[in-house]
Design brief:
Blueprint (H helix, E strand, L loop, with lengths): L1 H18 L3 E8 L8 E7 L5 E7 L5 E6 L5 E6 L9 E10 L4 E11 L3 E6 L5 E6 L4 E7 L5 E9 L10 E6 L6 E5 L4 E8 L4 E4 L5 E2 L6 E6 L5 E6 L4 E7 L5 E9 L10 E7 L5 E7 L3 E7 L5 E8 L5 E6 L5 E6 L4 E7 L6 E9 L3 E5 L4
Antiparallel strand pairs: 1-2, 1-29, 2-3, 4-5, 5-6, 6-7, 8-9, 9-10, 10-11, 12-13, 13-14, 14-15, 14-16, 17-18, 18-19, 19-20, 21-22, 22-23, 23-24, 25-26, 26-27, 27-28
Length: 372
């Protein structure tokens, strides 16, 4: 009898625990046609890794990148188009998010000059949005109000071609200490560094801080370690990752290391895309579009990289991936196979395993989580 009671207690406990599922919201954005809704809100079950679709959201045309406000319950969607509301421009759509109900509704929008924006970020004080526009070779600064709404464009820069090479800005963001603004120019193979004049809302070039990379590198995205002493740049056509040392003043000092992202036996065409550090900073991840893998590196005490392994992306053309706040799951958006693959990260090796779930999503370009 006593043994039966113990067994029953174990079963009841297991049942109760199975019901205590922790789910978090996952926001995805992608490219659209016609009147399609390009943003989707999923729920990730952090016990099982399963994704379930909660809603599809009108965030304007092709919301290919998303930013989250920490000060307000706002989401900013970047509309990667060349015609926004009849203007020759891209756009930013602002949405209000209710964290209690997960309801999302459109609140505001603003056109971004020249068109083709592909990446944007909030400044640390959340008073400006910084926009990089790939196809038009330009950047823009957007002033935000105290309640987080876009007020006006305070500055634009349209970069000139150099010979046959055309500028293609791809990512713009501040360093961890918010001392400077970094920009990758994929088309002109360079890293640019700016200060932000907050009174005027203008980007001021930092003298002598531009870093010219070898021709054909094509810097796309970057990430800093938590101390801001190392910067990792993933090169799209170059299929490589570069490690830079960063000075105490927040400026690039020297190139420390360059590693290939590809298996030595791979011979096809490849374009790298995303780069992220794991939660504890011990592992670095990059995506290969072509080889269709997520490549993982160990990060040593000096911030240098050693290959840990590579994982099939679970689809075709891994344009973007995100890591959940717990650091246990990697979600990969595969643009050409129209799906998001969820991987559980091995805590001992840092490697993503086989997909634990796969969810359909048309042409995903962004997968991410709110910071709070």
């Amino acid at each position: 009898m006593k043994r039966n009671l113990i067994s029953l207690s174990v079963l009841i406990l297991a049942f109760l625990l199975s019901g205590c599922r922790h789910e978090i919201d996952v926001f995805t954005g992608g490219f659209t046609e016609g009147t399609e809704k390009g943003m989707s809100l999923f729920r990730l079950n952090e016990n099982t890794g399963k994704l379930r679709l909660l809603s599809q959201i009108d965030a304007g045309p092709s919301p290919a990148w998303i930013c989250f406000s920490n000060r307000h319950d706002l989401i900013y969607a970047l509309n990667e188009v060349n015609d926004f509301d009849g203007d020759s421009s891209g756009g930013i759509t602002v949405l209000e998010y209710d964290p209690e109900t997960s309801a999302v509704k459109k609140k505001n929008e603003i056109a971004v000059p020249y068109g083709g924006p592909c990446h944007f970020s909030l400044t640390a004080d959340e008073m400006f949005l910084l926009v990089a526009s790939y196809s038009s070779g330009s950047v823009a600064v957007v002033k935000l109000s105290e309640n987080g709404m876009p007020e006006r464009i305070t500055h634009t820069i349209l970069y000139e071609a150099e010979g046959e090479n055309v500028s293609h800005p791809h990512m713009i963001s501040h360093d961890p200490s918010s001392k400077h603004i970094y920009l990758t120019d994929l088309g002109l193979d360079r890293l640019l560094v700016y200060d932000l004049d907050r009174a005027e809302g203008k980007l001021i070039p930092v003298p002598g801080a531009t870093v010219d990379l070898p021709a054909g590198s094509g810097p796309r995205h970057f990430v800093f370690n938590s101390e801001g002493s190392r910067m990792y740049v993933i090169n799209e056509p170059g299929s490589s990752i570069m490690v830079f040392s960063i000075s105490e003043s927040g400026l690039p000092e020297s190139l420390l290391q360059t590693v290939s992202t590809l298996d030595e036996n791979f011979s096809g065409r490849n374009n790298c895309a995303e780069i992220l550090l794991g939660k504890d900073g011990k592992y670095l991840y990059g995506s290969n579009r072509g080889e269709n893998t997520i490549v993982t590196y160990n990060v040593d005490d000096e911030g240098l990289l050693a290959l840990a392994g590579r994982t099939d992306c679970g689809g075709d053309w891994p344009r973007n991936f995100g890591i959940d706040p717990s650091g246990r799951y990697l979600l990969c958006g595969n643009q050409r196979s129209d799906n998001i693959s969820v991987f559980r990260i091995d805590s001992k090796t840092g490697l993503p395993g086989v997909p634990v779930s796969v969810a359909p999503m048309k042409s995903p370009a962004f997968t991410g989580f709110r910071n709070k």
